[in-house]
Write a structure and sequence with these properties.
The chain is of the alpha+beta class. It folds into 2 domains: 20-209, Rossmann fold (3-Layer(aba) Sandwich), CATH 3.40.50; 217-497, L-fuculose-1-phosphate Aldolase (3-Layer(aba) Sandwich), CATH 3.40.225. The protein has helices at 30-45, 77-84, 101-115, 134-145, 147-159, 193-209, 225-229, 233-246, 339-344, 394-397, 405-416, 419-422, 454-462, 497-511, and strands at 20-23, 49-51, 60-64, 92-99, 163-168, 175-179, 187-189, 217-218, 254-255, 272-273, 277-282, 287-291, 309-315, 322-325, 351-355, 362-366, 370-374, 377-381, 386-388, 430-435, 439-444, 465-468, 476-480, 486-490. Strand 15 (351-355) and strand 16 (362-366) form a beta hairpin. It is globular, with a radius of gyration of 23 Å.
Length: 512
Amino acid sequence: MNLMQHTHKHPSHAWWKTISLAYVPGPTTPVAEQVALGLLDHLRSQGHIVQDTPGEGTSVILTTARFGEPMRWRQALLFTARRRFQLEHSPTIFTVISISKEKFQEMMVYFQQVLEKDPPDPADFYFSGLAKEAFETLYEQGKRGGPMLSLLRMVQTQTMSIRVILVVGTEYPLEAYTFDLVGAHPRSDATDLVAFYDELSGRIVTAVSTKEITEHKVIDEPILHSVWSGLSTPGAMRRAGIELGRRNFFTEMIRVGSLTHVPSLPDTISSQYSEGCFATWEPVLEGLVATVTGSARPVDKDNLTDDELSVIVGVRPDGKGALVRHVEGKRNDPPSSEAVELMEMDRDLPRVELLGHGAISKYDVPVARSKLHGHRGVRAYDPRWVEHVYLDQPYYHFPVSCSTEAQAHAIKAAFSRSETFRNQEDPRQVVFTVLPGHGIVIAEKWVEGKEPFQVIWEYMDVGILQIENKVPQGPLVFVQDNQGLMKLKTLEGERGEEDRAAEEVSSFNKDK
């Protein structure tokens, strides 16, 4: 039985595990130490194992740092934990830091102001511990997600830690934001301390209870170049990249080396990662033609070549990754880290018949033709042509990250409930879901006379599907307005993230 099943205020994930963690304090403040120790007590009360020192069974190391004081990589546990504690594995590092409410407001105001400059002034983004070229990432991320995202990348770089719990408060916690690699920053209110520690502990357990599913396996003989060159899908993928690029759907790749200079990165971090991926079904290959992973090498999705495309034909029986076929005569990098979710989405959905050509009269294909995964949000949609499907409730309170088994299962379950995909007579052509703290997944039906993704980008152009930069960080609903559009509303109990920050910036400016 799940130890945490009936103890959390919010619905918990059925797949949560009992974890082992150790506390290795670093430079700290009274509030950071208070929260770290409070987390240890709460996790222990939930049945988790708190160790005196990290060992082979340790899944999490909890540590601390001071805001604005850069951690040298030689002291950072992200780089040194395995050697320091003679471990064969790399525990997940969570770093707790604190910031006063006044300093937090000051930083939000500052980033808001410097992000309004076009072009940016590199000097505005010079912070201790960051590389001079870090301004490019801080500016681009801030333009995408607001001042909170610039602050998030600054804090992650200075603390040399990906997963950071930023606690706002001087004598006691007022609120906290939990950061991850993709830029998630869900807020936890500390008005009720039991609920506060409950939520933060749940986010820690969520992070380490799932696993990455990127151990892709190559099967069968390579696809002949003559077969590949005769397909229309690779060209359609390249055109889709251009069209989506014109609509600024994908953001710039994040290069870790542009944020800080370290001699080498741990095996748990790629030197760069791209935001989003897309794939479309190719009937001849009986698989998806998809973009490759950005962690292998930089990928410009606005200007794809065949070398940036891969072929996914299934999922490994053990679920650890996708089944891939190589193509003769081209570079064959692994598919996107979301390869499994792109394929698994179809498993519980119907298939449809598609007219063939030549010797093949018809193809049996998934009802979802093309799939688009991006670190974006949806502001509004027209319910006559677009359907939104909800995730299972726990994912809105305890979000999961990219390339994980949990995210693939969440997306599969959400799309399996789609009325649009289950009923071919349904006039709606596009279905999407929102991944809190992460982004969106959009899928389209087969529409005669349309290229892959064409329905999606045309819906964007005419306002049937309205994309925005901001990604919701918690529970949400879409509410119909008097024009018939379904508009996003983040729920009051979980608001705060960028809405709260914007209010504080506005209030601070008025006071000045």
